[in-house]
Amino acid sequence: MLLTIRQLQVKYGDQTALQIDQPISFERGERIGVIGSNGAGKTTLVKALLGLVEYQGKVITQLRPEQMAVHMQTNSYISTMPVRCVMEMILNTSIKENKELQKLIDLFEFGPCLPKRYNALSGGQKQKFTVIMVMMQKAELTFYDEVTSGLDFESRQKLMDKLAQWYRDKEESLVIVSHYYAELEQLADKILLLDQGRVVAYGKTGELFRKYCGDAVYILDNNPENQELTCRFQRLKAPDHLIALSCHKQEEGKLLALLVEHNVNFKRSNSDIEIMSINAKEAKHGKMPLL
Amino acid sequence: MENKKCSFRMIRYELRNINGNFMPHFFGIVFPNMMSMIFTTAIGKQVPDAVRPETMVSIIICMALIMPMSIMFLGYGALYSQEVENEIPLRMHLYGYCEKSLSMAKVIAHLIFLSIAFIIYGIFQEIMLDIPKPAFSSLLCLLLSLYLIGVMFLLMVHSLANIFRKFSVTFGVSMFIYFLLMMLTGMMGISTDQLPKALQGVAKVFPMTYISNDFADFWQGGSYNFMPYIQSCIFLGAVTGILAMYAQYRNRRVGSK
Predict the structure, then answer these.
(1) Which ipTM score applies to this complex?
(2) Is residue B119 in some structural domain?
(3) Alpha helix locations (H) across chain B?
(4) Which of A23, A63, A218, B241 has the most CB within a 10 Å radius?
């Protein structure tokens, strides 16, 4: 067991920003995706675990806060010297002599940025700069809080690909905070879903998906024809422009045949975190039965 | 990941950081040299020949006193409070650097910069002015005092920045303290005994008062009662210590209530 949270409560003034009643444990080597909309308490959770905000309750762990690495939402550095010097100081190493660091710099294509000052870097380069140094810390538990915030779609995708690539064969535990579902699908094997400071769901991605969505979901455009065509199948809550159909193995053939027969475009998924999250929230608020 | 200790790399980083800041260069090197030139020229002409060397020494000591305050109080305060406002020290803590290591590197780097400023000042005075040679013990005493004051002021403004967490507030407060102390302790051309009685009492709690008013008396040797000076150092050290403890308490990693 790497870390256990028990009865955690964080208040800002009179407002409860985060309340976790049921115990939550992070195991060694797990990749936990923390998801929720703005104000869900994601960053507050990270700050509490790092001892940066006062909380009530317990965080049981052998790790000291300084043994955890973190990429905060905003990270600042001095701009009185090139980032190469800042990096070498923070990591207490020389880029020339450190092969692993060179590998990371190459992976993130950060080499040309090294002579620049921090305030001259673009948003994506700034994120990469911190990511490289956080990775080099090789902490047992690393937090990535909104690591792609402020980046365009392509840069986000690239950064997440690089992160996934780097951690593929590593054993470090990760907590990845995001409100982009697609980012977590690449990296997380467990999901902690927060809403308005409360835990909606926590568990392995596959298990949560089966619990709230069934074996698979079929996602198609929301139009009258598709609504009529799929009215026999169990509909899940989805964004307004989409129809999400819950599908168990027994009935999947029928649905598939129907969609192909009527030439309907669709997407099939057995790990769609967005649909799963929406339905977990609905179930939590008692609006939808569990499957 | 272990707590990172103060290293040569950190000191070099801090030196580069100081070098990127305009304040210490101007207020710590240019300003005292320029002021010593102006004061010695202006005042030197007005005093009789018999007391001129002593007056010159007094001015030079006063201007030397500006250096630790400008570099390690005003300059450092401006630089560090901006870092605090941008949460750079927090970022460093999250990389495993403890407050002690960070502060130590900053103190050492500033002491190196201060030493360079002293060397430039010494060379400049030697070339430009005809100053009597000091006794080794007097010079040593002056230098150690200046370093000590510098360290105390650096830790004081470091704590103030950590308490206020805003550049504007820290810079405003440090500017106010800087000029107030310069006026009170005789560095602005008004000697302490010209101040009203109440202010003289206040001035006596600061070591700078003794340095600017008395140290010229034993420049070429002689005896001096150091007790009031030591007491004032203890007082300033205590104020610095209290501020540092309070700042550390406010910025501690909190955790469970």
Answers:
(1) 0.86
(2) yes
(3) 8-19, 22-25, 31-46, 52-69, 76-85, 88-94, 99-128, 136-164, 167-184, 197-203, 207-214, 227-250
(4) A218
B257 domain residue, yes or no: no
Confirm whether B255 is domain-assigned: no
Domain that holds residue B192: 8-250
Radius of gyration of chain B (CA): 19
CB atoms within 10 A of CB B241: 14
Q: How many beta-carbon contacts under 8 Å exist across A and B? A: 84
C-alpha A193/C-alpha A147 separation (Å) is 18
| Cα separation values, A189 from A29, A39, A60, A208, A279, Å | 10, 23, 22, 11, 19
Contacts of A10 (CB under 8 A, 6+ apart): A16, A17, A18, A19, A41, A44, A45, A47, A48, A53, A54, A55, A56
Domain A216-269 has CATH 3.30.1370: no
Residue of A nearest to B79 (CA): A78
Neighbours of B31 (CB within 10 A): 15
- For residues B14 and A90, is the Cβ–Cβ distance under 8 A? no
Q: Which residue has the tokens 């969505």?
A: A213
Q: Which residue of A has its CA nearest to B3?
A: A66
Fold exhibited by the domain A3-207: Rossmann fold (3.40.50)
DSSP H stretches of helix in A214-248: 224-229
* Ranges of each domain in chain A: 3-207, 216-269
Q: Is residue B16 part of a domain?
A: yes
Average pLDDT across each block of 10 residues of chain A; the chain has 291 residues. List them in order. Answer: 92 93 93 92 93 91 85 93 96 95 93 96 93 93 90 85 89 90 86 94 93 93 93 92 91 91 93 91 72 51
Return d(Cα B210, Cα B232) in angstroms, integer.
9
User: Please, which residues have CB within 8 angstroms of residue B105's CB and are 6 or more apart in sequence?
Assistant: B6, B7, B10, B11, B13, B14
Q: Are the CB atoms for A167 and A24 separated by under 8 Å?
A: no
- Looking at beta carbons, which residues of chain A come within 8 Å of B254? 51-55
Count of domains for chain B: 1
Among A77, A79, A88, select the one facing B9 at the smallest CB separation: A88
| Binary contact (B91, A51; C-beta < 8 A) | no
Q: Does A49 touch chain B (CB under 8 A)?
A: no
pLDDT in tens, B41-94: 888 788 888 888 888 898 899 999 999 999 999 999 999 999 999 999 999 999
